[in-house]
Specification:
single chain; 5-stranded mixed β-sheet; 3-stranded antiparallel β-sheet; globular
Length: 216
Amino acid sequence: MRGYYLTNKHWALEAIKLRRVKLSLFNEMNDPFELLGMELRTKKDRDEFHQLKEEMNQTIGVLCFSRSWNNPVLWSHYGDRHRGLCLGFDLLDDWIFDVSYEGERLKEEIESELLERDHETLGHKLLITKYEHWRYEDEVRMVLNLNDSVHEKGMYFLPFCNALYLREVIIGARRDLSPKDVRKVISSQDNNVRLTQGRLAFRSYRIVKNQAVKSG
C-alpha cells in the first residue's frame, strides 16, 4: 500500500538524501496516551503495565504513516504548517498494522494478557490503539525492533528498502522549495521518484496537487 509520511523540511531532506527515515520512540511522541490504551483499575495493574511500557520504550520504535496526504490538518500538525514535505512510500503489507481508534480505554484482564506473547497480546493492542479523536490521521504503523534499525547519535533509523520504497514527494503549499531544489538531494537509486507541489483546493477543504507546476 502507499503510505504518506509528513515532516518538516529539514528532516524530509535529510531522509531523502540519506535514504532513511527516523523511527519514533513512544516516550517522545506527541500523543501522551501512547501505550496508555488500557484502563488500569488497580495498583497491581498499574505496576505491571508500567513495567511493560518501559520494556517497550527500550526495545520498540515505530514509523507512522497516513493512508492519504490531502487532509490540511495533517499538514498543519506534521508538515510544519504546510511548509514541510510529504514523502509517499510503497509499504509491504506484512510490515504494517492499522491503528484502532477507540472512544474508551480497553477493559481486559491484564494478568492473563501478559502471559501471552503473540500478535493478540496486550502489548500489541497497546501499540495500535489510539483515542478516536485521532481518527483524522487515518494511520498505519510499522513496528520495529530497535536492534534491527540503524542507531546514530541517540536516534534510530530504517533505511529505504523493499518495505519502505520512496515513490513520491509532495512539497507543502507554503513552501520555499521548488521541485528542482528537492531533486538535487535525491539519490540516483531513487531517480524515479515523482515530485509535485501541493496547493489549497478551490472548492473544498483539501490539499491537492498543483498540476500547473512541472516536477523539475
